[in-house]
Amino acid sequence: QVQLVESGGGSVQAGESLRLSCAASGDIDRTTCMGWFRQAPGKEREGVAFVTTGGGRTYYTDSVKGRFTISWDNARNTVPLQMNDLKTEDSAVYYCAAKPAPCPGSWLYPRPRIGDFSSWGQGTQVAVSS
Known about the structure:
Elements: E1 2-7, E2 10-13, E3 18-26, E4 33-39, E5 46-52, E6 58-60, E7 68-70, E8 81-83, E9 92-99, E10 119-120, E11 124-129
Parallel strand pairs: 2-11
Antiparallel strand pairs: 1-3, 3-8, 4-5, 4-9, 5-6, 7-8, 9-10, 9-11
């Protein structure tokens, strides 16, 4: 099991940036898949961005490509999510999540499935106003 604690949410205006972070501990190895989901009021939880702790493959949902960047900080065991050019539709509670390999983005596992992720953080709110 992996323990996850998010930080960095807040309120910004459209076009501004925020950086979320997720501190991870526990059963992590070089194949662990770490990532972020988000859930807006009245909407289903959706996968946003994912990265493998061993480096290499990343996955982004189409609506954030070119604006969000996910990485794995091996020295700090954290998963930063840099969010630039934020839009009002990015407003949601953001959840850090983890699962064993594979990460989404391959032909075997093209899209994230919520039920496959066994570890979750408590969530952090992001509010973007126009």
